[in-house]
Amino acid sequence: MTAGLVCATLATVPGASAVLRGGFVVYATELKHRLAGVDAALLAEHGAVHAEVAAQLAEGARDRCGATWGLGLTGVAGPAAQDGAAPGTVHVGLAGPGTRTVRTLALTGDRDLIRTRSVLAAFALLGEHLA
Questions:
Q1: What are phi and psi of 74, to 5 degrees?
Q2: pLDDT for 80-123, tens place per residue?
Q3: Across-strand partners of 93?
């Protein structure tokens, strides 16, 4: 949904390489399984836009990148619905030390605004756990 906007936004900060290990742009559903380790049965049963998919994306990013924290976003930026979810439906997953959580959002706006708000929500969720 964000097409790498989380990493791209973090990388605008000078010195980001000290904390940004990597990420996955897994637009295609099968890549969510193959590259990020999301359970194939979960994807087959519920589709890509699901809270548990976001949680498993976060865990996969954390594990595969050897990071302390992982973020996982899945949702619908629009203009059309996907997997029965309306545009603006976004699930943000966070995995870290003793933490596995998902925040579900119902965002409004055009495609670019929904993508931007999704990234900001992911940073806010991470920030709540770093404070």
A1: -145, 145
A2: 999 899 999 999 999 999 999 999 999 999 999 999 999 999 99
A3: 72, 102
Which residue type is seen at 27? Y
Nearest in space to 118 (alpha carbons), one of 55, 75, 59, 67: 75
Q: What's the rounded Cα separation, in Å, for the pair 120 and 124?
A: 6
> If DSSP codes are grouped into helix, strand and coil, which group holds residue 92?
strand
Structure tokens at 103: 């925040």
Can you tell me the distance from the alpha carbon of 1 to that of 94, in angstroms, rounded to the nearest whole number?
16
CA dihedral (128, 19, 9, 80) positive or negative: negative
**pTM (predicted TM-score):** 0.97
What residue ranges in 18-131 does DSSP mark as E strands?
70-75, 89-96, 99-106
What residue type is assigned to position 15 of the chain?
A: G
> pLDDT digits over 67-84, tens only?
999 999 999 999 999 989
